[in-house]
Amino acid sequence: MRKRCRIIYNPTSGREAMKNDLVHILDVLEKAGYETSAFATTAEENSAQNEARRAAEDGFEVIIAAGGDGTINEVVNGIAPLENPPKLGILPAGTTNDYARALKIPRESPLEAAKVIANGKTIKMDIGKANEHYFVNIAAGGVLSEVTYRVPSELKSLFGYLAYLVKGAELLPQIKPIDLHVEYDDGVYDGKASMFFLALTNSIGGFEQIVPDASLDDGKFTLILVKTSNLVNIMQLITKVLNGKHIDDDRILYVKSNKVVVQTKADEEMMINIDGEYGGDTPMTFVDLKQHLEIFANTDMIADDAMSQQEEQIQHDAKELFVKSVDEMLKEQENKD
């Protein structure tokens, strides 16, 4: 009996490559032995999430999220609460596509990504739970975590993570300290902080150096908490982060933890970014669900950290531009002092 596969696609993601390739994608999956159908998301709230749950409960063995990180997050929230969730496939068609990058899934061609699913290789992946909401890549708080929903969608499509860096540079002067109480497996942090990140993979905003020792299936988040809010220190730290040299810096708390609780003072609140979208405010409890979903991936390449020459050049150019912006801001700050 042929297995059933449901593609849930966002018809407006990225450059709308999905619609152009859909017929060929269906053909690739049919030849791989799947009885495949497609559902285009609508403007209705939680459209992708509701369809993912419906299809899973109807017995579809494979659910494919086709779109950006937001679409993937919705589909995951549709199937993650189920006792026996179906396998998850990913066809990236958004902008940064952090999750697809971590799984070494081709991001420029949904058709090539479909071939990864057709190959049938999977990995059991950790996912996160933030209160009652599931996420697959990152949860974060602080001004810089707001970048993803402050960048206009047209800039995301045109410039990808370069747009995030430019917007991030603009937001740096707005960083302010917040009194945080953070509980993690091996300790507690009480004090001022400007931002925190909880990462499940090594790819955040298109950069793979932020969590250089990430594991995809160990049941632990990587918690990165930035203790300082001093503008000069923040800019120095970001430069170190982009080169993966921040882990042992005293201005950062960098630990692994299965559970993390984040609280602020009663008169303060911190917006939480979940997979690039607003996910609520503190207090919030995060739990890493070990190997919770089985996901199609290019498993032969996951252990290989090498990027393509094009990818390396894009990241190099983006970092050069950002570091230049940081240097200019540091000089301005020195002149003011």
Overall shape:
globular
Mean of residue pLDDT? Answer: 82
> How is the largest sheet built, in terms of strand order?
6-5-16-13-8-9
Kindly estimate the percentage of residues that lie in beta strands according to DSSP: 25-35%
Q: Portion of residues in helices? A: 25-40%
Structural class designation: alpha+beta
Main beta-sheet strand count, sense and barrel state: 6 strands, antiparallel
Question: What are the main properties of this structure?
Answer:
337 residues, globular, six-stranded antiparallel beta sheet, alpha+beta
Would you give an account of this structure?
This protein has 337 residues and is an alpha+beta fold. Helices cover 35% and strands 30% of the residues. The chain contains 11 helices and 16 strands. The protein has helices spanning 17-31, 47-57, 69-79, 98-102, 110-119, 147-150, 153-159, 161-171, 231-242, 299-302, 309-336, and strands at residues 3-9, 34-40, 62-67, 87-92, 122-130, 133-135, 138-142, 178-184, 187-193, 195-199, 221-226, 252-257, 259-264, 271-274, 277-281, 284-296. The strands form 3 sheets. A 6-stranded antiparallel sheet has the order 6-5-16-13-8-9, covered by helices on one side. It has a 6-stranded antiparallel sheet with strand order 12-11-10-7-14-15, with no helix packed on it. Helix 9 packs antiparallel against helix 11.
